[in-house]
Every structure is written in C-alpha cells, then in structure tokens.
Specification:
With 107 residues, the chain is α+β, with helices and mostly antiparallel strands. The chain is built from 3 helices and 6 strands; from the N terminus they run E-E-E-E-H-H-E-H-E. It has a 6-stranded mixed β-sheet with strand order 4-3-2-1-5-6, with helices on one face.
Amino acid sequence: MKFTLVFPSKEADDLSYGLLFIPCPVWKRGEEEILNIHPEEPSLRKGDFSALLEKEPKLKELKDRRVVVVVHNYIGNATYKDFLTLIEDIVSSGFSPEVIFLPKTID
C-alpha cells in the first residue's frame, strides 16, 4: 500500500504529495524527496503527517483543511496499521480526510 495526499489548491498550484515506504516512510512531491521521516523505522508514527506540514509551510497556511487521501491498495509496502496512523494523524492536525481506495488494476 502507498498513499497520495491531495490538498485543495488554485489552478496554478499542485499540492499533492506521495507517502511511499521505500522501505521506510518518505514524503515525496513528484519525484523530489521532501522528507525521509525516520530511516530507522519502516512504520508510520504519530506526528509524521505533522512533519510534512512543518516541512511545507504552505500546507500549514491552508484555510481549507480538507485533504483527499488516495490509497493505492495493491502497490507499496505500507500496512493497514500505517493507514490508520496516517488518518489519525491527519485528523489530530485539524484536517478532514476524504479517503479513496483505488481498485486493483488489471495488467
């Protein structure tokens, strides 16, 4: 499992971030690595979403506190526990998550 977070933005902005587990959680914007959260631990921890907010100040300044969480259920190394930690962390940071589970694609 891996995640894509999409924040409300204007036409000229793209506020989408990937959370990949390669093998430890890493925040990415496109192909750019934003933050290797904790290289020694492969699981997501409470506060890891807040670490993204600290690293990307424009996210902290958003008045619209919604975020779409796209769950790529059949790709990546994240677990269901990581998903629950992420959602809990988003909510405790004052954001309202909308979750979309992508179906498995046919190869």
